[in-house]
Automatic annotation (TrEMBL):
Origin: domain of life: Eukaryota
Disordered: annotated segments: 166-197
Key words of the record: Metal-binding, Zinc, Zinc-finger
Example GO molecular function: zinc ion binding
Listed Gene3D superfamilies: Zinc finger, CCHC-type
Signal peptide feature range: none
Protein name: CCHC-type domain-containing protein
Boundaries of every CCHC-type domain copy: 148-163
Keyword Ribosomal protein among record annotations: no
Segments of skewed composition (Low complexity): 174-190
Amino acid sequence: MEQESVKDFSVRIEGLAHKCLNNHLENGENISDSFRARLLLSQFVSGLKQSIKAQVVAANPSDFKTAVEIADRIQTSQSILTPNINSVSDFAHINDFAKLLKSTTETFTKSLELVTQQLQALNTRVDEVQKSRQSAPPQRQNKNRVTCFHCRKQGHYANECRKKLAERRQNDTRNSGRYSYGRGAYGNNNMQRRNPN
């Protein structure tokens, strides 16, 4: 409801949830307390006005009571930002307006502290991710101590072994006539062997 305050809405939604859950209990269904609390919290947040709901969701309240307090502070701060001119013009309401302004200032201060804490935590996490990405790749050992697994000589790895490379090239030229039947560098010789014409 557009004119309903957050506190009134919280009382109404709590009553409706209580009735609904009692109906389930009468039907013999067993519902855990944690499920009830989550259900009440989700129904409360989903029923809020969009301008309040977004900020409550961002605050990520842990329980219903906390969500009501956050939503009430937001509603109070919004009413100060866009006050009803008719109610402020009356001298009797100026004192109420001052109280409201003070509470809103406190609300903004608390909200700003919360946002600052969240930003600090986020910055810390971003720094950790950047440091992990910038860390130098592991260095290879000094090659003087390395022994090749292929030729058993020191000074290089097997993937850099010249003997292994030479053996591969020699095997490729020997086997090219046996396994390759297509046209290409080795295929033409192959075709000549098969068709001596």
